[in-house]
């Protein structure tokens, strides 16, 4: 995908007042690349991510919705600015969009399997049920959840498990581009790393492009090699993570670089004593989390997995 000088605004109730959330951003994501989008709260990350996922290009969208008001935003070679609804819907079938609150958006009355399968039947109401079930099982397995959870309702799962279900749902149509907005929001540190590693391993196997949005540098640097930093709706850093933070000019990036140096200097290897490594002193629920994140068999690569350029 490619954004050239893209500006995005929100139309308020009063049509005179419009809020510019993103102002003149350039951003490219190559096929098969993972890019981290970093910035503090309110810097415009979700607005930009949503626009890339097709939420801001529609002609005549209503109040309170984002609207691309300048520049050009192309995904899979198609211009999103001013796109019609039907063309947008077709295009976004190739984009897996994990919204910030996607786990809370799971239907409480559908089982995990039904929630994950829902995009398949939205795309094609007459899709073969047996094939859909097989695809759902593959997706559940790929995000390292036990297949036994498929018949459960979302409220019977932990928040980390729900997040994985949301991820399975975002990936069920084998998108060529994944846009994941705060994919680890509300998840404790141990499970958080495992969710990120799951995305990285799926991306490695299926070779899709990904935009990973976070306000935490540790999240972005765990999964992406390239980072784009947003501040007040403009890009203040873009490049390989080490380069962006080596000698930054921007005040905000300088602050992040300093925090990164401090964090790194604090990380000292934990002493290990023979025979005492096995979860000693770890709370039972944490041990459970560790067990829950054990490596699973490699997910089967479904036919037709997206490899096309974004
Ligand atoms: N529906 C809306 N109407 C008007 N302004 C909005 C709307 N949604 C977001 N904004 C404003 O746009 C700006 C960017 O918001 P956005 O959600 O993109 O930031 P963010 O970097 O993703 O923040 P966070 O990390 O807190 O999610 C903010 O100033 C926000 O107040």
What do these coordinates show?
The protein has 310 residues and is of the alpha/beta class. The protein has a domain of 75 residues. The chain contains eleven helices and ten strands. A six-stranded mixed β-sheet has the order 6-7-8-3-9-10, sandwiched between helices. Strands 2-1-4-5 form a four-stranded antiparallel β-sheet, covered by helices on one side. β9 and β10 form a beta hairpin. The longest helix is centred in the middle third of the chain and has 18 residues. The C terminus is likely disordered. The structure holds adenosine-5'-triphosphate (ATP).
Task: Label this structure with key terms.
about 300 residues; alpha/beta; six-stranded mixed beta sheet; about 35% helix; about 20% strand
Short structural summary:
With 310 residues, the chain is an alpha/beta fold. It has helices at residues 45-52, 85-92, 102-105, 112-123, 129-142, 159-171, 189-206, 217-223, 241-244, 251-266, 284-292, and strands at residues 2-11, 18-28, 34-38, 66-75, 78-79, 95-98, 177-181, 209-214, 226-231, 234-240. Adenosine-5'-triphosphate is lined by residues 10, 19, 21, 39, 41-47, 64, 215.
């Amino acid at each position: 995908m490619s954004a050239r000088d893209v500006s995005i605004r929100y139309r308020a109730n009063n049509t005179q007042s419009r809020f510019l959330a993103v102002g003149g951003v350039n951003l490219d994501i190559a096929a098969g690349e993972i890019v981290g989008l970093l910035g503090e709260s309110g810097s415009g990350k979700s607005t930009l991510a949503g626009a890339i996922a097709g939420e801001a290009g529609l002609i005549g969208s209503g109040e309170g919705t984002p609207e691309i008001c300048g520049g050009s935003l192309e995904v899979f070679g198609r211009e999103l600015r001013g796109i019609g609804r039907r063309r947008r819907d077709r295009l976004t079938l190739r984009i897996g969009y994990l919204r910030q609150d996607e786990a809370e958006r799971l239907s409480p009355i559908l089982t995990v399997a039904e929630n994950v399968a829902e995009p398949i039947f939205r795309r094609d109401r007459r899709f073969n049920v047996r094939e859909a079930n097989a695809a759902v099982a593959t997706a559940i397995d790929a995000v390292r959840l036990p297949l036994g959870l498929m018949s459960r309702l979302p409220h019977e799962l932990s928040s980390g498990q729900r997040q994985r279900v949301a991820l399975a749902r975002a990936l069920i149509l084998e998108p060529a581009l994944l846009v994941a907005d705060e994919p680890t929001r509300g998840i404790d540190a141990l499970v958080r790393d495992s969710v990120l590693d799951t995305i990285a391993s799926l991306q490695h196997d299926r070779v899709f492009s990904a935009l990973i949005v976070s306000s935490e540098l540790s999240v972005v640097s765990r999964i992406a090699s390239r980072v784009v930093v947003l501040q007040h709706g403009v890009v203040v850093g873009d490049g390989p993570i080490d380069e962006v933070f080596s000698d930054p000019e921007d005040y905000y990036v300088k602050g992040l670089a300093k925090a990164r140096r401090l964090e790194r200097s604090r990380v000292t290897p934990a002493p290990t004593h023979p025979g005492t490594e096995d979860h000693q002193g770890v709370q039972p629920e944490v041990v459970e989390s560790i067990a829950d994140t054990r490596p699973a068999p490699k997910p089967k690569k479904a036919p037709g997995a997206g490899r096309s350029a974004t």
